[in-house]
Amino acid sequence: MFSHVTVAIYFVYVCLGLIGLGIALLFYMKLKHLSTLKKTEYYQRKHQDYFKYLQTQLYEDQELPLPPGKLVPLEKRIIQDKLMEWIEQFKGEVRTRVIELCYKAGFVDDEMEKLDSLYFSRRVEASYRLGMMRATEATPRLLDMLRKQRYSPVTTIIGRAVSKTADQESQLMEMLGYMLKHGKSIHNLAADVLLETRLDSSKILLQLLDHENPDFVKVALVAMWGQAVPEVIPALNRLSVDADEQDVRAEAVKLYLSSNPVLRDDTIKQLMSDSNWEVRAAVAKSLGNMHAAGSIPLLRRAMQDENWWVRNNSAESLAQLGETGFELLCETAQRGSGLERETALFHIEKVMSEGSDHRALDQMVTFNKKRLIYDRYFGVIETSKPVRKVAAVGGDYSA
Amino acid sequence: MRRLSLYVKLQQLEEITLLRDILLIYGLFAIYYVMSVNVIYFSVLALSFKNIWTVYRRSVFSKFNTLAGSDLVPSVSLLVPAYNEEVTIIENVRCLMTLNYPNYEVIVINDGSSDDTLEVLTTEFNLTKLTNPEMRNSIDCTAVTGVFYNPEFPNLYVIDKGNGGKADSLNAGINLSHYPLISSIDADSLLEKDALIRMARQYMENPEETVAIGGDVRIANGCLIENGQVKDFSLPNKMWPMFQAIEYLKAFLGGRIGWSSINGLIIVSGAFGLFRKDYVIAVGGYRGGYPGEDMNIIIKLHRYMLENKLKYRIAFCPEAVCWTQAPESYRILASQRQRWGRGNLKNMIENYDMAFNPKYKVMGLMTMPYNIIFEALNPYFKITGLIALVGYVMLDMTQWKILLVFGLINFLSGYLFSIGALILEEIAFKRFIKISDLWKMLFYGAAKFFGYSQLGTLWRIQGHIQFLRNNNSWGAMTRQSWKEKSDTAKSA
């Protein structure tokens, strides 16, 4: 028993010691942080005039001056942070001038040295800063770091730095290879990282679309969202039909359709019966935008689709396809049943509630025609009396 | 007569010997119990320390300005269940509608409030009732009486439904939601502007395997709040919220970072979490009828993924912060903790089969046993421990020194854990700047072991009694406007 108590007493002493150390460490960290904050404020005030002067010189031909006097490490860090902020904000010539100033002030060399540090944290920080300063010569070292790095949030930090510093397309390809080799489906994140590059992204995207690795193709497809790159349309067309991977094809179709291409009837039919719901939904959505009145029967059938997005997009497109499309919606709402009826009712009400706000004459005429159809099916009503809702039976698990 | 009295004395002696033996065995058991709980606590804390550097790097060396405006970020439906939240709801919805996030919708679910929650929302945002709202009915929930919408605020929907509880409201929100990710947010909480984008970034690092991500919940009492944002971080001025601030810090930084690193997280706080909608639907949505729906959904997700042999992770994102109002009165705090006790017990009883079952990996071999033995049953070990101590003293089996050592071990190991959590905070976040804040946290970190901790035990037992009595009520909860709170913080 005595030995137990002795062990317990030792444990108490250990706890007391650790608590004492912990409290001391806490105060040390807190005081150090407070002191850094205070000094940061002081140095920011001290260099305010220098920053103002730099701002006035950004658009002049003269070389940007170095910071005045001998600088302590914290001062250097504050000036470097400000310059990095500007590099992110500006583009073109101004950005290049600020980058040159970073080189001249020795900030790039300092960070390059830190890439050899024994501490992992310092190496990660250096890679982040080199990326922010667009230090081209750091790219090979960063790629080497990325190659050795096991998958973690640091992978993205280094990948982003490579993307910012790279001056050759092959370096970006290598970076993507290292990021994607871990088998995680990080295509959106990789695309976001890739788009940080200073190089011409449309050329790289074209290369990626033709790549044998489907992961590279997926990165290109997601990277192209919201970007108008006409050169890639043929490649998208090819992928829409030939791609082996379902999700690659779905993404390609969505993207291809967003460019409003002219589709042949049999292509539309083929895509609308695709096994992937994303493809069917994308086609259903695009048919309304393309005003493809010939596809009304296809859309009518698609309103019975098992997937919510396909039904919803089909109804939305029907509502966009003039009086014929709208009448078909009303017919479905009156004679159809279950989920297709609910979808039709929702979109009819949407058209009726949005329609009354139209100001332009042609829109008003179109709306009034639809209103007449509505009245024919559901009776003349004062203002916007709703169609009675039919309660859903069962559940829809496609959402 | 003498023989009889001798027999009685012998009988008593035998009984005392038996009692002594029982107490001795219990004493040994208690020692191993305390040792085990400490080993687990410190192992989890060590894991938190190992991972805090990753958290730090992720939060400092990632810029969110490009991501926050990118189409590559997944769309999210924010679900905000609201029951009698007329005082705070407008400010909270305004806060949610101005997050740094490219594509999301806010769905407020009025859970049959008896106050004017619905009216203040419809008036403020000029909402009108949709005639045929498209509810997908993926999950069963109480009948929805209306969906309110205004095209001028295209990302805001308000669902009105009969009272069915928080879980039921979340299910109704899922039925209306349009996006693949859902985020549950308490109506009395404020999200930091970058909270959602930080979480989404973590999701994007491994979207296929991530089924849920929990955010860090912090106590807003005492902070200066302006326009739905926490402008100045400060600790609460009152005693009860201050104890809770320490408790949250310990649980979230000291505990959840560590548990998440081994994929053993058992709870994603209901105040702020992000989920893959397809998996939430696959497990049947949130379970109604009992509190503790936030723990329940995570257990169900673990079970589903492990039973279907799917690779997954339930992550924790401490840099995504949500500020919440902590109860300031004894009555409301007690009611909240009793509710948590009930929820915890219900979840443990419902899922006892997972404990010690290797099929459920970390969840079965560590998380569930830990939660049953050291969380759900903890109050009973504490009480029996106390009774045993009285027994030792009465039977003269112990000395004051041993009692003191035992008490000290309990206090010091707990306090050391608090210090660990404070160091984690200081390494990665440094939110509380003043030295006085540090003193205050150190004081309350120690003081909580003298009264507050014991009250926690009492509340948990009361919760268990309520559970046995089938008392499923949510309990008392009052709200204070953020503006009032902020005024109090300013004047303090």
From TrEMBL, chain A:
Pfam families hit by this protein: HEAT_2
InterPro entries: ARM-like, ARM-type_fold, PBS_lyase_HEAT
Transmembrane segments: 6-29
Key words, A-Z: Membrane, Transmembrane, Transmembrane helix
Record flagged with keyword Lipoprotein: no
Domain of life of the organism encoding this protein: Bacteria
Protein name (record): HEAT repeat protein
Entry-linked SMART domains: EZ_HEAT
UniProt key word Transport: no
Gene3D superfamilies: Leucine-rich Repeat Variant
Automatic annotation (TrEMBL), chain B:
InterPro entries for the chain: Glyco_trans_2-like, Nucleotide-diphossugar_trans
Keywords from the UniProt entry: Glycosyltransferase, Membrane, Transferase, Transmembrane, Transmembrane helix
Gene3D superfamilies xrefs: Spore Coat Polysaccharide Biosynthesis Protein SpsA, Chain A
Domain Glycosyltransferase 2-like, residue spans: 77-215
Regions that span the bilayer: 23-49, 372-394, 400-424
The keyword Secreted appears for this protein: no
Family note: Belongs to the glycosyltransferase 2 family.
Protein name, UniProt field: Cellulose synthase/poly-beta-1,6-N-acetylglucosamine synthase-like glycosyltransferase
